[in-house]
Write a structure and sequence with these properties.
Elements (H helix, E strand, L loop, with lengths): L1 H8 L17 H11 L6 E4 L12 E5 L3 E6 L5 H6 L5 E4 L15 H14 L10 E2 L13 E2 L5 E8 L5 E3 L13 E6 L6 E5 L12 E4 L5 E4 L5 H5 L6 E5 L1
């Protein structure tokens, strides 16, 4: 329906779906997916709606980043990506109902508000016609992820995402790993459970059956994985959980 609304207002729009698999209500996962996609986004309008506060007091915003314009709720889902796209040149709160669909529902801003705004941006409408400028410093931001090292050398990081294959995307990158005399590390959820050995690999195919691996994913972050099985279930973690990695 969102596609149809956009195309009904801007027939020449070309729509690229990045994902419809963000877990329900998970703004952090949506923000992470969008931020990791930033280097590959074709210039244009970016519509991102992960919006558990739909119908509430959160603002509806457009962030102008020059070659990109980001549209969505002011709940943190957009800001990190805007920074990776060169920064926010101006921010607008979309308060003028004249750019929305008539009689919008309270529960589907993607269809009734954000989709039409994106379509009008594709047509070249200046975002300041949607409403007043706002201070970019006042936009909602998500908390910085935990990244620390214990005196013993253990890395503490967060689960940033769990994809549909059960791979556990971490906030850490390969240089963050503790020094080790081997390619095997100990991984455990800080919320409890036992430690699991995980071997550094470069691809899924290097892993044996049921062998846990640590690899560098397509965005340059560390991920805990199994070959054709769900590492998230093995570790019993969800996005936002903290993970310890030790030599």
């Amino acid at each position: 329906m969102v596609h149809s609304v956009v195309l009904s207002l801007c027939r020449r729009a070309r729509i690229v779906d990045l994902s419809h698999e963000v877990p329900a209500h998970d703004v952090r996962a949506g923000a992470a997916l969008l931020r990791r996609a930033a280097p590959y986004l074709v210039p244009g309008v970016v519509l991102a709606v992960v919006d558990p506060g739909v119908g509430g007091k959160r603002r509806r915003v457009v962030l102008d980043c020059g070659r990109w314009q980001l549209v969505g709720p002011d709940n943190g889902v957009l800001v990190a990506t805007a920074a990776r796209l060169g920064g926010i040149r101006r921010a607008v709160e979309a308060t003028d109902h004249g750019w929305w669909l008539p009689r919008p529902a309270m529960t589907f801003d993607g269809r009734d508000i954000f989709g039409p705004l994106a379509a009008h941006l594709c047509l070249g409408v200046d975002p300041e016609r949607f409403g007043p400028r706002i201070d970019p410093d006042g936009l909602e931001r998500l908390p910085d992820p935990v990244m620390a090292r214990t005196p013993e050398g253990t890395l503490l990081c967060e689960v940033e995402s769990v994809d549909r294959f059960g791979n556990v995307g971490l906030t850490a990158r390969p240089p963050d790993l503790p020094e080790s005399g081997s390619d095997t590390f100990s991984v455990r959820s800080q919320s409890g459970g036992r430690s699991h050995p995980a071997r550094r690999v470069t691809s899924f195919g290097e892993l044996g059956p049921e062998e846990l691996g640590l690899l560098t994913d397509s965005s340059g972050h560390l991920a805990v994985v199994l070959d054709r099985a769900r590492a998230a279930e093995r570790l019993a973690v969800v996005p936002g959980d903290r993970v310890e990695i030790a030599p």
